[in-house]
């Protein structure tokens, strides 16, 4: 796979797995990242909301709103059954 995020191959892969890349963020000196406004609005994230931090294979990180954790767990169960 090419590292060009806008290559045809990468665009097709993102569409296949329903993945949307929004922007890059920088880790600050206190190990914090700012969730971009576009993402906060899309996911209805508000001050005080709880997010679950999930990693996979030491190379990926997701943050899921705790309001949606059941949806994430259903996805994980489905992925496990398809392996």
Keywords:
Pemi-like Protein 1, Chain: D; alpha+beta
Describe the structure.
The mean pLDDT is 81. The protein has 3 helices and 2 strands; from the N terminus they run ααββα. The protein is an alpha+beta fold and 83 residues long. The protein has a two-stranded antiparallel sheet with strand order 1-2. The protein is 35% helix and 14% strand. The radius of gyration is 15 Å and the shape is globular.
How are the secondary structure elements laid out?
Blueprint: H1 8-16, H2 37-43, E1 51-56, E2 60-65, H3 69-81
Antiparallel strand pairs: 1-2
**Distance between the amino and carboxyl termini:** 22 Å
In the CATH hierarchy, what is the architecture at level 2? Ribbon
User: Which percent bin holds the helix content?
Assistant: 25-40%
Strand line-up of the largest beta sheet: 1-2
Assess the beta-strand content as a share of residues: 5-15%
The gross shape turns out to be: globular
What's the CATH class label?
Mainly Beta
Radius of gyration: 15 Å
Structural class: alpha+beta
The biggest sheet amounts to: 2 strands, antiparallel
SSE ordering = HHEEH
């Amino acid at each position: 796979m090419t590292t060009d995020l806008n290559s045809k191959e990468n665009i097709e892969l993102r569409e296949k797995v329903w993945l949307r890349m929004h922007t890059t963020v920088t880790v600050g000196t206190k190990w914090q990242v700012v969730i971009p406004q576009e993402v906060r609005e899309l996911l209805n994230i508000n001050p005080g909301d709880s997010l679950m931090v999930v990693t996979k294979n030491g190379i990926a990180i997701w943050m899921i709103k705790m309001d949606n954790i059941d949806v994430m767990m259903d996805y994980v169960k489905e992925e496990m059954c398809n392996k």
